[in-house]
Amino acid sequence: MKVRYIYLLLLTFLCTHQLSAKKMPIFPVSEIPEELKENADAVIRLDETIVEINSIYNLKYSYNRAITILNESGDEYAEVLASYDKSMPLSNLQIVIYDAEGMLIEKVKSSEINDYSASGESMFSDNRVKQYETVQKNYPYTIVYSYNQTLNEYTSIAGWYPYDGYRCSVQASTYKIITSDPSCFKHKLYGSTIEPEVKNIKGKTIHYWKASNLKAYKYEPYASPYSTRGPLLICAPTKFQYDKIDGNTSSWNELAKWFSKLNQGRDVLDENTITEVKEMVKDCKTEFEKVKTLYEYLQNKTRYVSIQVGIGSQQPFPAQDVQDKSYGDCKALSNYMKTLLKVIDIPSYYTIITSANKRRDLDTTFVKNFGNHIILMVPLQKDTVWLECTNKFSPCGFLSSSTDDRTVLAINENGGHLVRTPVYKMEDNTQNKSGKIIINADGTATANITEECRGLQYSYLAGLSHLSPEDQKKKIYNDLELPDFKINKHEVSKELTRIPSSVLKLELDIRNYASQSGDRLFIPLNLINRTSKAPKKVRNRKTGIYYKREYCDTDSIQFTLPDGYEMESIPEKKAIESDFGNYYSEAKQDGNKVTYIRKVEYKKFDLPAERYDDLRNYKKAVVRADKAKMVLKKI
To answer: Which residue, of 161, 430, 496, 581, is most buried by count of CB atoms within 10 Å of its CB?
Structure first.
C-alpha cells in the first residue's frame, strides 16, 4: 500500500470519524513488507510530524501515528504519551485500535486516557501527561493516534528521528515544516543523505522529509549511542522571543546573551544573608576552600524540586527566594550558588548541559537551545571547579558520568562560550580490592576484604553510605557474587575530595570457597572481582563497537593455606594486551601464604563493527584467566 494512500486513509478517519472498518481495512498487517518484520517486535506504519511556524510567537505541532505491535515484547511501543502544560496545550487526542486484518477493535474513550502530573513530587509544575496503555493481548494489533499542540512562546523546534528503539522497524515516517518565512528556521540532517522536498503553496513554503522501509535494529553489545544511527534531523528558530526578551541563534555568544538577559536581576540577596556569607568564609585560606564552604552550605540548606511553571521552565527563581524557602530546581539552585559566590567576588558561569549517560555529543557548528540541566562552572586562577547544585551528596568539584566529558554552554553577564566538562582518566576511575582469606581444610574460609572505589567508580559504594546499616547489608548480600557467605561485620565510608573515594570493609564467613575432590583441594584465586562471561556472539554485526570511559581495577588478595596440604599446581603469570584493555594476573607462594595480584585496564574505544570478534576474544581470554585455580594435595 502506498504511503500517500495510507496517509489519506488515516486522515480521513481521524478528521471525520465516519470511515467504517467493515468497508475498508486500516493498516492490515498483510501490507507490511516481510523484511520489516525481521528482528522486529513492532513496525511504525506511519509517523507524521507537521510543524507550522506562524511567527516568532506562535508555533503549532500536529502528530499522526500508526504502529503495529507484532508480539508481547512490542507492547512497550504501544503506549501513548503526550506531554502538555498551560504554555503548550494539547487538543484533539484520538486513539483507535485495529486487529491484524485492519478491522476496528476499539475507539478509545477520553475517560480511558490517564491524565496526571509529569513532575512526580514537584511542588511547582503545570507539566502534565496524557497516557494510554492498551490491554490488547491478541497479536498483532495496530494502534493509531493523533493530537495537536500550540506554543505561543518557543525557543526550540522539535526535530525528527524516525526510529523508536531497538527491534522496531519503520514503514513510513515524514516530517514537515510549513512557514511563510523560510529564513525563520534552520536545520541539519545526520546519518542520511535524505534531501527535503521544498514546495511553495499559497504563500507558504513547505520543507518535507520522508523515510521509508527502515529495518529494525537489534541490540548489539558495546554499541554506540542509539541516536547516532539512522537519520536524525535537528531544527532551531533563527530568532525567537520568550518573556518579551528577543533572542537568536546566530552564534553561541548571542544565545548566551539571551540566557543572560533572562537571568538579570535574579542574583540579589538581602544584607543579612550577605553578612552571613562573608562570615562563613572569613577564615578560608584559598578560593577553593571558599567555594567548598559555600557549596556545602548550599547542600545542607536546600533541597531539589522540579519547577516547570510558565517562564520557570526557562528562567531561574530569584536567589532570595531560594534563600528564604530553601528549595529550587537546577536553574534556581545553580543561580543561587552563583549569587553566593558573587557576594565574595568569585565569578562563575551558569552552564547549560545535556545530562545523560549515553547521548550524541553537541554539534558545535549548529547553534540551538539545547540541554536539559544546569550546573555551575567556577573558573579559579589555577583551576576550574564544576558544581552539581542539585545533589546533596556530590563532592565539591566532581561531576558524574551523566555530566562529564561533553560540550556545554557557559554563561556570564555579557554572553558566554562553549567549554568542555572534565574527562576523568583511567588513574582517576579506580577500584582497588585487598584482603586476606584463610582457607580451611573443609573448603570453608574466613575473609577480610577492603574495597576502595575512586572517581566514576565511587558512586556505588557512596550510595551504600546513604542507607541504613541493615539496608546496606541487604544490598551487599544481593550484589556480592560469592557462592554462600555470611557477613559478620561491614563498614562503609567515603572521602569527598576532588576525586572522591568510597570504602567498604567486610568480614565474611564463606562456606564453599574451595571444592574438594578426593585428597585434593581446588581454590579459586578470584571469586571477589572476576569477569564471569564474555559478550555474546553477533552474526552480521551492523554497528561499531564503543566504550566511553577508562577504568582500572586492581586486586591484591593474600591466601593462608590449610595445614596438612601442599601445593600441587599454581597458575602461571598471565598478561593480555589489546586495543580494548590490558589484563595481568600473578600468584606468588611464600610458605603457606599465596598472594594473588590482578590488574585490569579498561580502555575507551570507538572502532568498526569488524573488530567485535577481536573484542570477544579478549573478553573470553579474561574470563578464562579469572577462572584460574590453585590445587592443593593432602600430605
So the answer is: 581
